[in-house]
């Protein structure tokens, strides 16, 4: 349990609870503090309650040094220094979400894109730079409900809850920009839904969809690397993954371009997921 230092208490602080965690964000600079607070509210989609506390699960510090560089610290450990605000706040956004995903009690955060289709969730586990945001975007354009392009948030029953952040897209030279669901004339999911299909895939030009159905045991094992809470809550995480692997279809296959693949995937779901 992290405790605020006397120095931190003298500076600007934002204390809140989110997903069962008590968190403090502090800064020695008013402009940096206001921007960091805005990042928190956007990153956690407003799923927080401002609350005073004497003890915290995590304390973030984002301080501006004399040379103007920004230093990010988590629980007393320096994570990095950035010479631009853009890089600093993107890094803070990412670390905040991962920290919450690893630590939230009673929920499992899976690194995956998620859409809803006919009352069931399609999970797309993938690391960064594997095209899951592009695939999620095309699925939403095709009529699927948007749940997340970042994390599948699963409760103890294995149901997926909405985590509809702005969709983060990358250009060919790795510049990033964001899309809202409205930008693509889509609809966001609003209620928890069970998992119907888990697709383990990666893009290769001109690849054909040749789905291989995983056994429940092998499917579970393949989901473990994407499960943020595994290190801190291994027993609970395994229970949730077991429910998914027993109830959902888990398949693996290469895929071609997202635009061409979407109809194939949705047809597969229609024909195989009850």
Defining traits:
single chain, 274 residues, alpha+beta, Phosphoenolpyruvate Carboxykinase, domain 3, 2 domains, five-stranded mixed beta barrel, 7 helices, 17 strands
Notes on the structure:
With 274 residues, the chain is of the alpha+beta class. The protein has 2 domains: 6-103, no CATH class; 108-272, Phosphoenolpyruvate Carboxykinase, domain 3 (Alpha-Beta Complex). Helix content is 31%, strand content 33%. The protein has 7 helices and 17 strands. It has helices at residues 6-10, 30-43, 85-103, 132-141, 216-223, 234-247, 258-272, and strands at residues 12-18, 21-27, 49-50, 58-64, 70-74, 77-82, 108-117, 120-125, 145-148, 151-154, 159-161, 167-170, 176-179, 187-188, 193-203, 212-213, 249-255. It has a 6-stranded mixed beta sheet. A hairpin with a 5-residue loop joins strand 12 (167-170) and strand 13 (176-179). Helix 4 (132-141) crosses helix 7 (258-272) and helix 5 crosses helix 6. The chain is globular, with a radius of gyration of 20 Å.
